Amino acid sequence: METKNFEIANNQSRIEWIGRKVTGAHDGTINIARGTFNVAGGKLTGGEFTIDTTSIKILDIEDEATNAQFAGHLASDDFFAIEKYPEATLVITSVAPKTAEAYQVEGNLTIKGITHPIAFDAAVNISADTLTATGKITIDRTKYEMKFRSGNFFQNLGDTLIYNDFDLNISVTAKAA
After folding, report:
1. Sign (positive or negative) of CA dihedral 30, 36, 41, 46
2. What sequence ranges are listed for the domain Lipid/polyisoprenoid-binding YceI-like (predicted)?
3. Tens of pLDDT along 48-93?
4. What gap in Å lies between CA 163 and CA 10, rounded to an integer?
5. Which of 26, 102, 118, 153 has CA 20 to 30 A from 166's CA?
6. What total of structural domains would you count in the chain?
7. Residue 140: which CATH number?
């Protein structure tokens, strides 16, 4: 059985995030710093990737000052604490094929030095020299000490409540190493 490693092509890969609150949502992007996927017998078997938390961008706020203020808050200890934790990682621990191109993926996600297991579905296409994958990961931010305006920890937030779950929509391209 042939084993191959595929390295993520950062310029062809994208993570879009969306966070929701009572009064709406915010969205943006965050970059992948590096990563690899492992393939054996033409099937995804594992991998890991590192996210550059310092690269977080907010796309839905056009006012420059408001955008900068919000970005600063996301960088603070209330959220990603990027000075202390400039990277987050996902290490794939198991992969179960559901169909020829659909997989159930399980892994360990580390944000702010805190690791929790996650599971998500991914669509994966593998050719001789390219692997493409898409998936949506839903993360409970409170598991990673991001409690700011969480209804689990604070009462009477009214319309300032921020929902605990946020989504990462991931689209990656990787090239055979």
Report:
1. negative
2. 5-175
3. 999 999 999 999 989 999 899 878 877 888 778 899 999 999 999 9
4. 30
5. 102
6. 1
7. 2.40.128.110
